[in-house]
Structure formats: C-alpha cells, structure tokens
C-alpha cells in the first residue's frame, strides 16, 4: 500500500467518494479547525489541502470534495485529545483507492471505515488497554473480536503463537477480516470465527448497528442511544467451555491469555469457565466489564485463586480487569 499521493484515483467521482469515505473515519471533523488540527499534528495524508473556504481539495481535481452533513460529524472534546495523542505517538496515514484510509502505529494498521474506529485504535494501540507481559509462548482467545484490532495487537507480540478471535455479527466480522488483509505480516497467526461465546451453545437474535459495533452483544446495547435505526440479527453462540477445551487441546504446552469484551456476557461466561480446574493452569484474563459488574467478577476470580485487580475507565459502568492464575508464568 502506497502513500495517498502515489495511489491517487484518476476520476473526480472516485476521488470525491474515497475522500468522503476517509472523512467518515474521522467522525468528528466538521470545519477548518479540525482539518488544521490534524495537519498541525502531522496526521493528514499526503495530497490533501484545505482552501480559503475551508473546502477539502485533492491534487489534480478541480472540484472540491463535498462536505458531509454536520449531524454526522459533530465535534466533541474527547476527539481533540484523541487527535493530539495519536499524532504525538507518531501514527502514519495512508490512502488507497481500493482499501480506503488506513492508520498505522506500533506495527498495527486499521481501516478508517466506520464510526468510532479511531477511538478504538486509540484505546488498543496507542493507550494499550490490553498491555501485559508475556514471558512464555502464549495463545490468545479474543472473545468479542469486533473489527479485529485487539487480535492484531496481540498477534504483533513475538511470544504469541496464535490468536483465536470470535465475533458474532457478520458485518463487524467482515470488517475484521478486511483489517487482517492489510496486516498480512502478523495476521497469519489469527484464526477468526463468525460466532460468539456464551455459557452454552445456541442461536439467538440481537440488535445491530454498524456505528455501534463496539457496544453490542446479547445483553443489549451498552450505550444510551436511540434504538430506532437498529436492526435485529440472528447470531450463533458457542459454549465457552467447549471452545476453551478445544484451544487447550490444540496448544497443550502454551499459556493462555483470554481477552474478553462482550458487553455484559462476561457475567455468564466467567462462571462457566471457572468451573474448569485447568483454568488455573497458566491462564491470565483481560476483561472489560460492563453494567457495573466488576465487583462481582473480581470476587469470583479471587475466590478461585486468581490474583486480580480492576481499573475504572472514562466510560460509566465500564472497568478493565486483569487476573492471573496462581501458577507461575
């Protein structure tokens, strides 16, 4: 994938369409201030300029790129902090007429093709919400893979042998697969499955909206939004115990890291896994809890011999828990 200036689409219609797609990745850009903010922090792809009217222009294209509707890109204060933080960490941006805009940092690339993906990139790659020390060969089980960013983050670790990612929503799963394609050097470790994880295997329906893919699960929507535009989708869920046993059978000598971000389903998955004696053998868990259930889950983990602690996030009711088994890593 080349820089934007080397992969410029020829037709005006293509340029405008792809530039609009780029801007959709930056969900808060509305006016010249935000454009200048990006340029000032060197997080703007080569070739884009802003004219005196605040319109986006592309090299060799006479017509300015149409502006998006304001209601789609209302700026908020956190977005400014994210822009500055990503710029300070040396992120680079590429643009390809086929794949669209891509952000890269710390060896991981992400397609900027939807609402909230830049925030996810900031959390996982820049702030490293799932940062942990792996001193021995490890297999990662990614429950709630979303667009694949955490799977890629772990796959970039030299001590990770394989990553098994589970995502129940088809459109979000397809976005993850697209991200794996642009990270070929590390994505070979990842085994993605378009299924979710629960305390038992069954089919069910759940609400879905592409703009809120990071906040969806069988327990409902983990953000306070109008559900009128959501659609109902049928999803397949697998037994956590069955999948756990399969992964351990495939990698009997490796340690296991379980990353869990499943919007409330952790309340049923954790007790199911804790019923297994082998869970205390070379296992650590990175869990994002929702709906203020962190105290309950911490107590369950500690009662089963795990050393565990939790950190509050900036999101109401959401905590990050880290737990390690009592077997030396």
Question: What's the total helix number?
Answer: 10
Low-pLDDT sequence parts: 1-13, 23-46, 65-78
Percentage of residues in strands: 25-35%
The average pLDDT is: 78
Characterize the structure shown.
It is globular, with a radius of gyration of 21 Å. By secondary structure, it is α/β, with parallel strands linked by helices. The chain has 10 helices and 17 strands. The strands form 5 sheets. It has a 7-stranded mixed beta sheet with strand order 8-7-6-14-15-17-16, with helices on both faces. A 3-stranded antiparallel beta sheet has the order 3-4-5. The protein has 2 domains: 4-123, no CATH class; 129-324, Vaccinia Virus protein VP39 (Rossmann fold, 3-Layer(aba) Sandwich).
Explain the layout of strands and helices:
Blueprint lengths: L11 H14 L6 H9 L8 E2 L5 E2 L19 H12 L3 E5 L3 E6 L2 E4 L5 H10 L11 E6 L5 H7 L4 E7 L3 H12 L2 H4 L2 E4 L2 E3 L3 E7 L7 E2 L2 E2 L9 E9 H11 L4 E6 L5 H9 L8 E7 L4 H10 L3 E6 L6 E6 L5
Parallel strand pairs: 6-7, 6-14, 7-8, 9-13, 14-15
Antiparallel strand pairs: 1-2, 3-4, 4-5, 10-13, 11-12, 15-17, 16-17
Helix pairs in contact: 3-4
Question: Keywords, please?
Answer:
alpha/beta, 10 helices, Rossmann fold, disordered N terminus
């Amino acid at each position: 994938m080349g820089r934007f200036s080397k992969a410029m689409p020829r037709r005006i219609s293509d340029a405008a369409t792809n530039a609009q797609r780029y801007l959709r990745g930056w969900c808060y850009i509305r006016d010249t201030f935000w454009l200048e903010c990006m340029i000032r922090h060197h997080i703007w792809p080569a070739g884009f300029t802003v004219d005196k009217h605040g319109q986006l222009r592309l090299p060799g294209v006479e017509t300015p790129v149409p502006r998006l509707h304001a209601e789609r890109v209302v700026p908020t204060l956190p977005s400014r902090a994210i822009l500055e933080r990503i710029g300070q960490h040396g992120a680079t941006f590429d643009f390809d007429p086929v794949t669209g805009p891509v952000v890269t940092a710390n060896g991981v690339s992400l397609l900027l093709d939807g609402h909230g993906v830049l925030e996810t990139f900031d959390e996982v790659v820049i702030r490293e919400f799932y940062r942990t020390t792996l001193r021995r060969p490890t297999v990662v089980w990614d429950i709630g893979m979303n667009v694949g960013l955490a799977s890629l983050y772990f796959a970039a670790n030299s001590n990770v042998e394989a990553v098994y990612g589970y995502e129940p929503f088809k459109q979000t799963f397809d976005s993850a697969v697209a991200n794996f394609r642009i990270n070929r050097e590390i994505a070979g470790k990842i085994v993605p499955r378009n299924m979710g994880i629960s305390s038992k295997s069954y089919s069910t329906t759940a609400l879905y909206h592409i703009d809120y893919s990071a906040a969806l699960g069988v327990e409902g929507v983990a953000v306070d939004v109008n559900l009128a535009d959501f659609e109902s989708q049928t999803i397949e869920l697998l037994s956590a115990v069955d999948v756990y046993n399969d992964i351990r059978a495939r990698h009997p000598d490796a340690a296991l890291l379980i990353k869990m971000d499943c919007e409330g389903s952790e309340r049923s998955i954790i007790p199911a896994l804790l019923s297994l004696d082998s869970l205390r053998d070379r296992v650590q868990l990175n869990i994002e809890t929702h709906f203020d259930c962190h105290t309950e889950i911490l107590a369950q983990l500690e009662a089963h011999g795990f050393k565990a602690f939790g950190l509050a996030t900036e999101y109401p009711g959401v905590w990050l828990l880290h737990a390690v088994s009592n077997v030396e890593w």
